[in-house]
Amino acid sequence: MPSINPHEQQKDYLLSHFEIFTTPLSDSVRPEDVAYLQDKYQSPAFDPSTGLDNAALKEGAMALAQARKEQPRQIVKAKLFEYLCDNMQIDVNCHDLFPGFVCYNRYDRPVSPVLGAWRAETYAKYLPELEEEMRLLNESSALMLYPDFDHSVPDWDALFALGFPGLLRRAREYRARREAAGTMDDAARNYFDAIEIQYHAVLRLLERLAAYAQEHGAGDSRMEREIACLKALAQREPRNTYEILYLIFVYFFLSEHVGGLQVRSLGNMDRTIYPYMKRDLEEGRFSEKEIRQFFAYFLLQFAGINNYWGHPFYLGGTDENGDSVINPLSYLILEEFEKLHITTPKIQLKVNRNTPRAFVDLAFNMIRRGNASLVFVCEPGVVRTMMGIGRTYEEARTCDIKGCYEYVVRAREVSTAPLYLNMLKPVELALHDGLDPYTGKQIGPHTGSAESMAAFDDFYAAYIAQLGHLIDEGMRCVDAFEPHLLEINPTPLFSATITHSLETAKDAFANGSKYNTTAMLHTGLATAADAMMAVRRYVYEKKELSLAEMRDALSVNWKGYEKLRLKILKDREKFGNNQADVDLYAQSISRFAASRVNLRPNARGGFYKAAMHSARTFFTFGERTGATPDGRMSGDEMSKNLSPTMGMDVRGVTALLSSVAKIDSALYPEDCNLDVMLHPATVQGEDGLVAMRALLQTYMEHNGISIHFNVFDPAVLEEAQKHPEKYKSLQVRVCGWNVLFNNLQKKEQDAYILRAKNIAE
Q: Rounded to an integer, what distance in angstroms lies between the CA atom of residue 179 and that of residue 498?
C-alpha cells in the first residue's frame, strides 16, 4: 500500500524550499558561520573519510536487513541503527556548535526503505484483505489511515538526569531484576538486547565525533568546548546548558533521522533547562551572551532541517504550588527566536491565568510583528479535558504538549494518530446512498436516495448514519494493524526512556506505556454544519430546489446554478458568526462523533480519543470531496480544526468566539484548536495589545484549549502573491505549524486572501 502518512506529504515543498535564512540573523550568530549553517542540511559536503554517504548507507541497510531477515525485528532494527551510527559520514565544524550527520534528509532516510518493506510484509502476512479496504478508504478521502510513528515524546527528565550512559545502566538494572525473578523470556530478551545494542552505538558515535573533532579542531576554543561536551556525554549525564542542548539535538536526530521515529516535542525547555542556566551563570561557567549563542545555534539546526510541519517544544505551565514556571529563560528563548527570523521550531506556550503579563505581551508583540510560530495552549482547559477521561490532576497539570498542540501524560502515554476523519464526506454519501462519487465505490451504508428523503430529519439521519459508519470502519482498520506496530518499526531508543516500558519489557509503542491511546483526528466540522444548514434552509424551508436537484447541481460542480451557489455562499448562516441554528448543528455533529470515539477500547490495551485537529487534511481531503451544499466548489478546502470555513466568519472575532464556545472542548481529549485571523489595524498600539490579551482571556475562561493567530492585511497578501521576491520572509500559520507564504500553493494563498478580506470588511 502506498504511503499516505501526512508527515510525508510535504516532500515537494521541502525540496523546493531554496532559502532557509531569509533575513539577517541574530547577533548571536557569527556572520562567517552563516554559509555553513545554510548548507548543512541542504547540500552538505562532509569528509568522506568519516564514513558512507546516504546512498551507500541505504544499500547497506537493505543488505543487512535481508541478511538478518530470520531474526526478530527488534534485533534487526537495533543492528540497523548500529550500522548507521558506526558508518555514516559525520562532521564537527568550527562554524557550528552542534554535530553534522549525513542522513539529514528525513524524506530520504537510510532506514526508510527497510521500514517500508516491513510494513508491506506485515500487511501481506496478516492483513491482506484489510490493505485493499484501507486503500479504498484512503483514496476516497473519507478517512486517512496509516501506522503512526510520528508522535513520540521521550522522557526528557530521565534523559537529562541519566544521560545516554545512565539510561543504558538503568536498562541493565531492569533486565537483572527480570532475570532474578525468573521471568526473562525470548520477547523480553530481545527487548533488552535491542536497547543494549542501540545505546552502545550511541556512545560509540559520541566518541567517534569527539575523536574527529580532536583531530581537526584542537586549539580552536569552540571546538575544544564541543570536544569536552562530546566526551562528557559519552561518560555521564549532562551538567550544563550546552550539554543539555547537545543531548537534546543528538537524541532527536538519532531517533528521527536514523531510527525512523519522529520526536514530536523537544520538551518543556524553560522548566527543564533553567536550573542548568541559573547554575552556569552563578558559577561563572558561561555568560548570558554565550547561553544566547547556544540557543541561537540550537534553533538554527531545526530551521536548517526545515521540516514542513515544524519541530515543537513548549514553554510555561505551572508548578505543584500553582505558580507559573515562566522564568528568565522563557524570555531569552523567545527573544533569540525572533531575532533569527525563522519559521521553525514552532513554540507552544502553556499559559494559565497567572502567566506573567509581560511574557504574554512579548508573545503577542512577536505575532503582531509577523512571527506566526507561536500557539497558546490554555492549561485550565487541558486539565479539565484530561481529567474528564480519568487522568489525575497531577498528570493533567504536568502533561507534555506535543506535535501541533496535542497533550499527553508526560513519560507515561504513547498516543498514536493513525486515523483522520473527513466529517464533510458523509454529506456526499448521504446524497448518494453511500456511494462515493470520487471513486465510484460503495463505501457507506445504504441510507436511501435523495428522492426518498421527504423531510430534513431524513437527510440529517442519513448523514449521521454515514458519519457513524466511517468512524466504525476507521477504528476497525486501526484495531487490525496497531497490534503489529512492533513488527513494522521497533523503538528501542525511545523505549529505554520510558519507565513502564522497562518494567514490562515491552516496546513503548506496543503496549509498553502506562497509557496506550489512539487518536482520531476530525476535519471539516464547520463546513459540514454549514452544508447541513444550507440543505435545511434552501431545500426544505425555502424550497428553492429539491434534494435530488441539489444532488444533481453538486454533481456538475454547480454548473448552471451559479446564482444559487453565490446566494448560499454569501448567506451568513455559517458557523463562526454566532448564528444559533448552524451552531446547533456544529454542536450536535461534534458531540455525536466524539461520543462515538472517546473511551472506546483500542487494540493496544487503551482507548480512543477524539481530536479537533485536521493537520493538512483540510486541504487534501477537500481535493477529493465534491461540491457541497454550503456553496463550496469541488476540490476546495474545507474547515480545519475548530475554525470556520475559510472566509465564512464575517461578523468579527467576538462572534467567532461565541460560536466556538458552544462546542465543549472536553469532547476532544487529544487536542482542540481555534485559528484566528486579525487585521493589523485592530491590534495596533497598546489598545491592540489589550484587545489580544482580552481575546486570549475570554477564550481561556470559556474552556478553550489551543488558539493561534495570523495578523494579515489582505493588500499585503495580494502583493506578496504577485511579487513573491519582495516577501520572502512573510510567515503564515497554516494549522499546527508555520510556513512561508511563498511556499503555499496558489489555492491555499487565495483562501487566506479571501478570509483576510472578509475580516477587513
A: 20
Q: Which DSSP category does 736 fall into?
A: S
The DSSP bridge partners found for residue 90 are 101
Q: What is the pLDDT of residues 458-493, one digit of tens each?
A: 999 999 999 999 999 999 999 999 999 999 999 999
Query: In this predicted model, what pLDDT tens digit does every residue of 517-549 receive, in sequence order?
Result: 999 999 999 999 999 999 999 999 999 999 999
- Alpha-carbon dihedral sign for residues 447, 521, 702, 408: positive
Sole residue written with cell 541542504: 42
Determine what percent of the chain is predicted with pLDDT higher than 70: 97
307 pLDDT band (50/70/90 cuts)?
A: confident
Higher pLDDT, 19 or 705: 705
* Angle CA 367–369–371, to nearest 5: 50
Task: Decide: 655 and 577 in contact? Cβ < 8 Å.
Answer: yes
Burial environment of residue 357 by CB neighbours within 10 A (0 to 12, 13 to 18, 19 or more): exposed
Residue 18 binned pLDDT confidence (cut-offs 50, 70, 90) = very low
pLDDT band at 106 (very low <50, low <70, confident <90, very high): confident
What pLDDT, in 10s, does the model give residues 253-289?
999 999 999 999 999 999 999 999 999 999 999 999 9
Q: Which cell numbers in the block locate residue 550?
A: 441539489
Quote the CA–CA distance of 608 and 596 in Å, as a whole number.
Answer: 10
Contact 576, 484 (CB under 8 A): no
**Distance from C-alpha of 592 to C-alpha of 339, rounded to nearest angstrom:** 46
Q: b or e along 118-148 (b: 16 or more beta carbons within 10 Å of the residue's beta carbon)?
A: bbeebbeeebeebbebbeebbbbbbbbbbbb
- The SS3 assignment for 83 reads helix
CA 712, distance to chain mean position in Å, is: 24
Across 242-323, the runs of DSSP E, i.e. the strands, are 312-316
CA–CA separation, 359 vs 370, rounded Å? Answer: 17
Bridge partners, 516 (sequence order): 414
Residue 7 burial (C-beta neighbours within 10 Å; 0-12, 13-18, 19+)? buried
Q: Distance between CA 71 and CA 73 in Å, rounded?
A: 6
C-alpha 382/C-alpha 207 separation (Å) is: 42
Task: Tell me the CA distances in angstroms from 302 to 110, 305, 350, 546, 557, one per residue in order.
Answer: 20, 5, 21, 54, 42
The residue whose grid cell reads 504577485 is 722
CA atoms within 13 A on the CB side of 133: 16
β-strands 671-678, 706-711: how paired? parallel
Could you report the per-residue pLDDT of 63-95, keeping only the tens digit for each?
999 999 999 999 999 999 999 999 999 999 999
Question: Which residues, at least 6 apart from 283, have a Cβ–Cβ distance to it below 8 Å?
Answer: none
> Largest Cα–Cα distance in the chain?
85
Written as nine digits, the cell of 678 is 486579525
Closest CA to 353 of 388, 327, 318, 385: 318
Q: Are 144 and 6 in contact (CB under 8 A)?
A: yes
Beta strands in 252-373, from DSSP E residues, in sequence order? 312-316, 346-351
Average pLDDT for residues 730-741, to the nearest whole number?
A: 89
pTM: 0.96
Q: What is the pLDDT of residue 7?
A: 47
Nearest to 97 by CA among 394, 335, 298, 322: 298
